[in-house]
Structure formats: C-alpha cells, structure tokens
Amino acid sequence: MSLKVTHLAYQERLQKVSFAAQPGELVGILGANGAGKSTLLQLLCGLLKPTAGAVTFAGSEISQMSALAQRQLLGYLPQAPHAEAAISVEHFLRAGMVNLQLRSPESELQRVVQTLRIETLLARGVHQLSGGEQRRVHIARALLGDQPWLICDEPTASLDLYYQLQVMEILREQAGQGKLVTVAMHDLGLAARYCDRLLLLDGGELLAQGAPAAVLSDANLAQAYKIKARWLCTEDGVTLLPSLLTDAES
Fold this sequence. Notes:
The structure is a single chain. The chain is an alpha/beta fold. The chain has a single domain (3-210), classed as 3-Layer(aba) Sandwich (Rossmann fold). It is built from nine helices and twelve strands. It has a six-stranded mixed beta sheet with strand order 6-7-8-3-9-10, sandwiched between helices. The protein has a four-stranded antiparallel beta sheet with strand order 2-1-4-5, covered by helices on one side. A two-stranded antiparallel ribbon has the order 11-12. Helix 4 packs across helix 5. It is globular and about 60 Å long. The protein starts with a strand and ends in a 6-residue tail after the last strand. The mean pLDDT is 95. It comes from Pseudidiomarina halophila. Residues 3-228 form the ABC transporter domain. Part of the ABC transporter complex HmuTUV involved in hemin import. Responsible for energy coupling to the transport system. It holds the Pfam family ABC_tran. Keywords: ATP-binding, Nucleotide-binding, Translocase, Transport.
C-alpha cells in the first residue's frame, strides 16, 4: 500500500519531484507561498494530471483511476473549499458519504462529529459558520470513511491554537492507525513536532526530504524561506523563532 511519486511535473509549477511514503507515516509538505505545495497535493489526489511522471499507490496510477476508485482510496481536504449552498452541517457531512460504501453511515457520521467536536454545529448552515468552524467541518468530511490515504492542504488554516493542536493530534492518530497522511503546512513548528518526514519545496522543485531535523536546517530555511531560525526544544515539543535574513546573509 505504499505511495511512489516518480519525476512528477506539472507545467512550470512543479518539476521532477520524486519520493516514496508508507502507510503509518505523517508526511509534511513545506515551502513558501507559490512553492508548489497545493499543486503537488492536487496531483497526488488526481485533480490534476501530470505533464510528466506518475503517482502510484499500491501499484495503481492515480491519474488512470476513475473518480469512484479515487474516492475509495483517499480522503482530501482542499486548501480553499468551495463555498457551500445554504445547507446544514449535517446535510453537508451526509453528502460526503456518497460513494463511500459504508456499512453503517450513522455510526460513521457520529464518529467524525465526535472526533472534531462539532456536535453543536450540526443544525447550523455551513455558510453561517466562522472560518475556523468551517475548517473543522471540512476536516470532518475528509475523515469520513476508512480510506488508506488522507491528503490535507493547510488543515490548521483559520484555526486558533487549541484547534491547531487538536487537528494535528487527530492526524497523528490517523497515521498511528495505519493510514498514510500527507499534509501541506506553513507552520514549521507544528511540522517539526508532528511529522515523521518532511518534503521541502522551493520554486516547484524538491529542495530536501527526510527527517524534520535534517530538512529544517539553517541552509534550507535560508534558501526556501529567506529566514534564519532559532529552535526552542522541550520534552513537550519544539517551536520556531524566525527572523529575516539581512542583506549580507541572503
């Protein structure tokens, strides 16, 4: 059930990206704005067809799968979901169960609602929610089903600190249950704390990949983000204190 990405390219936005990942891993995809993170995720889940290279999961090429087969394989959280019509959160979640072939849709709905703690939101209209509430609802929808692969584009966007940590704990649990979890992120501290491996993109190319400590080096941060960083490490995790490079350092 492994993922293999080989010399993947999409127009001028992504070039010759190759990596592999295994079930049980939480893989973070990092990079500055415009580095190619969202493009890579859309290629991984089949929303875009590569201009070169291939994405295969368990030996099957994603771009050659039907939409139904892709739905059985993966859950996807886009960076900016489309605005929903005036429907309730419950209706929105139930619509997300179409084509999932669930044994017990009611139990599955209850599971994701409890996981994201959105019981009080079910009767409200999706369009009436705050940005953070909408994000939690969309994450709940992405978690519906038992697909072996979960792809999330900026899952902590619009969330306060409590829910950022909650969502990362949930994604960590998903990986612990044997899923492959692939996440595009901006928060380097959360990436270092929760991810098993990181992919760092720069200008549409893969600058570095590997363990967080190796990828988030001074040289890589300077090249990809034009920053220098000081790391604070405790038994509970790590945090990043960034500063801009001076003209002499850049």
